[in-house]
Amino acid sequence: MTYVVTDACIACKYTDCVEVCPVDCFYEGENFLAIKPEECIDCGVCEPECPVEAIKPDTEDPDGKWTALNAKYAEEWPNITRAKPALPDADKMAEVENKLETHFSTKPGTGD
User: Fold this and answer.
1) CA 108 → CA 58, 77, 79, 80, 82, distances in Å?
2) What is the pLDDT along the chain (112 residues), one digit of tens a residue?
3) I need a surface site. Which of 8, 70, 71, 107 has the fewest CB within 10 A?
């Protein structure tokens, strides 16, 4: 099992989770975070830190869509290990559902 970042993170990008990760397995996109499945040690400390409940065990990703997306972009984006401010409209965007098709950016973030 591994943890994956899901739709709720898109256009919010709260980073509370990255500071508690003991293995630094988060990677930063322009408006999304990804977890590298091969680096995640399944400790689960990141899950309760997410204010929008975007982090889920991969067992809650039955079709593997989020696991694949996290794996792909964790290879392309820079590592992030320190918290940063959330995106400006994070609170508003936290209430939007199904953001993958309409709000997801493939561009990398800045990392640490």
Assistant:
1) 23, 5, 10, 11, 16
2) 799 999 999 999 999 999 999 999 999 999 999 999 999 999 999 999 999 999 999 999 999 999 999 999 999 999 999 999 999 999 999 999 999 999 999 999 999 9
3) 107
pTM of the full structure: 0.95
Q: How many CA atoms lie within 13 A of 74 on its CB side?
A: 19
Using only C-alpha atoms, what is the Rg of the chain? 12
User: How do the domains of the chain map onto residue ranges?
Assistant: 3-93
3-state secondary structure of 23: coil
Q: Are 8 and 52 in contact (CB under 8 A)?
A: yes
Query: How far is it, in rounded angstroms, from Cα 77 to Cα 69?
Result: 12
**Side chain identity at residue 93, one-letter code:** M
Q: What is the third-level CATH fold of 3-93?
A: Alpha-Beta Plaits (3.30.70)
Characterize the bridge pairing of strands 33-35 and 55-57: unpaired
